[in-house]
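Intended use. Records like the one below are meant for learning the mapping from a protein sequence to its folded structure. Do not use them to infer anything beyond what is encoded.
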Amino acid sequence: MKTWLITGCSSGFGQRLALAAAQRGDQVVATACNVKAIEKMVESFGGRMINLPLDVTDAAAAKAAVAKAVEIFGGFDVLVNNAGYGLFGAIEEGAPEEYRPMFEVNVFGLIETTKAALPVLRRSRGMIVNMSSGAGIAGSGGGGYYNAAKFAVEGISEALAGELKPVGVRVLIVEPGPFRTDFLGRSIAMVAKEMPEYAASSRKHYRETNNGNQAGDPDKAVAVILQAVDADDAPLHLPLGPVAHSIAERKLASFRSDIDAWRDITIATDFDQA
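Structure written out for the chain above:
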């Protein structure tokens, strides 16, 4: 049996993962900024699931949630940093009051929650699961701010993996493609300013996406995440779904092409040997 602390449980993968873990007999600390949204979720699990308020942008709140989890369950084995939302629009279109709050939640909130949880995870030799995205693998027009936030999650996670391996704490980066959650509904924001210069490149994809008809089955994705958390040989990167895998393959091929094309020129930059 594992004990989980999961952020962003009011909807989407956070909620489904919390329910799936509890249904299989694990203990779950489900958190959300609006705790009323998850009150009913815990009722059928008795004391195995508790709900706590947690605004991840508040470092003191993150520490308080961790302390409460330790008080009730004695600790936890898995931290899932799931809280976050998307912001879409061209880079030039975005305003600071639009993109800075998104970074506060998606990046700095993840950092503060992770820092609060690490003393507990070191004792349990547990795992950090950071929810990234296919958008964290490769950038695309109109998604630059969200790409940047998820690229940050990837970099932080890779660094954590190196820092924590010696103390027995593992890191899993989950990189979903499009799944049939409400991400493209309540968890998405568009920049307010629209410039005609970017009508084709920054808006087209997101306006044409039909929320509710994504090919990905989120319950199947959650089952894969559970399997990876339980596995002794879990990878660092876990692209979920054929779209995420296609993004990764295209990125690898493009990166390799760039490296190979200019290899001889770009490696000839050291001082000449005497």
